[in-house]
Amino acid sequence: MKSSELRQRVAEAIRAAQAKKAESLTVLEMDRESPSFTDYFVIASGSNPRQIQAISDEVEQRLSRMGLNATHVEGYNQAEWVLLDYVDFVVHVFSEKARKYYDLERLWKSATRLHPSELKPARKRAARPRPNPSGPTGSPGTPRSRSRTRKRANS
Q1: What superfamily would CATH give domain 3-108?
Q2: In the chain, where are the structural domains located?
């Protein structure tokens, strides 16, 4: 999978988590030199089991619409730590207590920490308007100096 396509999928997982009010969103880009099994970790927290499940459901639904299904899901029923494995990235949704206990950010401190906005694809620049060969008024043959003359006369 292309890096840009992967980043788009991770960004969609982040947007899904944000839509369900996930807290403390963190993205870890795993070090290519380390023996990691994935490229990214998306880590989020929910304040209660229902919210943790809602965040997980939203991530699964949105990525499913993109044709991507989790290969493995763990912890959904207990809703303390839900793990959604998409092979190239893993989404972790924690309760606050479980997140502090497992502290994945510390465990994977060699990973590069990214802000979620860094994964959004760069926006295309708007095309510059091309000069109108027929002049500013849009009617062929109207000289530009004529409109400037009017401005001076009104000044």
Answers
A1: Beta Polymerase, domain 2 (3.30.460.10)
A2: 3-108
